[in-house]
Amino acid sequence: MTDLHPIFAPAFKARPWWWEAAEPPDRDNSLPDRTAVAIVGGGYAGLSAALTLRRLGHEVTVIDAERIGWGASSRNGGMVSGGLKVASTGLEATYGAEEARRITAAAAASFPFIEETIAREGIDCDYVRCGRYAAAWSPGHYRAMAEKADWIAELTGLPTEMVPKSRQREFLGSDHYHGGMAAAATGSLHPGKYARGLAAAAEKAGARLVDGVRVTGVKQEGSGFRLATDKGELRADAVLVATNGYSKDPRGTALPWLARRLIPLNSYIIATEELPAETMDRLFPGRRMISDSKRVLNYFRPSPDGKRVLWGGRASFRAATAEQSAPTLHGYMTAAFPELAGTKITHAWTGYVAFTFDYLPHIGVQDGVHFAAGCQGSGVAMATWLGHNVALKLAGAANERFALDGLNFPTRPTYTGSPWFLPFVGGWYRLRDHIDRIAA
User: Fold this and answer.
1) β-pairing, 34-40 with 232-241?
2) Which listed site, 123, 231, 286, 392, has its alpha carbon 20 to 30 Å from 98?
3) Which segments constitute the FAD dependent oxidoreductase domain (predicted)?
């Protein structure tokens, strides 16, 4: 397909553009016989937890079925949000006003924490606090944003601004949307470099990182645990599962209870060929991160070097390859930016994110095993923050209860972690987006 479809550049690659500068490296570390703490999952959450546990003096081994950082941590869009997705959920009806505020405040704290982590560890990952522009798909979506703008500003401690359609081109070089909200509590980074830097910080602190070990089961054994893997057994005093969107595996799952509560969803991204500086200046004034308010959302941004458009979204709710999904994303991109109709794609890729049935991130303990998961597709800051907090819990070092710890974590009857219903839900969401647009 890559040599037939006109949108593909001659040297097109079905792999993350981020890997051109920071592909996850291979490691030669072997699996030890035992460890004090075994962390299953070598993404942002697992690495952040390892770093915190080492700083608290605990021996840690991080294992991943692929390479450390191979999953969503080096495939995402590199948008660093301050828990705004949690703030948009209807929490008060379930938890009451006071607890809802604690939950949203805990989520918002992920933003300053990742900024502190990057600065403290000296991680070179092209981080910039650039702000976000949330583009309204319809006038009704714009009004809904306006109702929450002041509260989001209060929650994050950073300003928001409602931008009418007449001023939209000050923030986004497109007339495709009905205005939007500019929020300062967002940054941008290179996710591959961040994953590599976080891994390096954990290793420097003394954590052991092991690639290519697939955990097929975890059982309690005396006061500890025995992990069955495809490379032998590992005994540990404590276990943390931080596999998020990769928690369900037919070859064996570290914590089936967790897989039943997570909805793995493919997210797809394309990278364009390099564009003239004046084009990028016109499309992205201020170099902000952009997302729209559709239920089947798009998110897009300039690359850290300011030369390409990176466009992501839910191109398919069925299994699709990067090559198959790329034309759909290209169509979404050119609907917003018609001048890019002739622009070719150099890279396309996909990866799993994890949603929960209550739209909240969670940490906790089940059957003695700690877990952190459910970042709702906004995991750069949140996964880092969850990993830190679950590490404090595991070590008994938390000064107070973390508001995302121990919440009711729902599933659905008969659900095992394989979301057969996604094509139906996705079709319904697309229809509702279409109705909203027609009404506009």
Assistant:
1) parallel
2) 392
3) 37-391
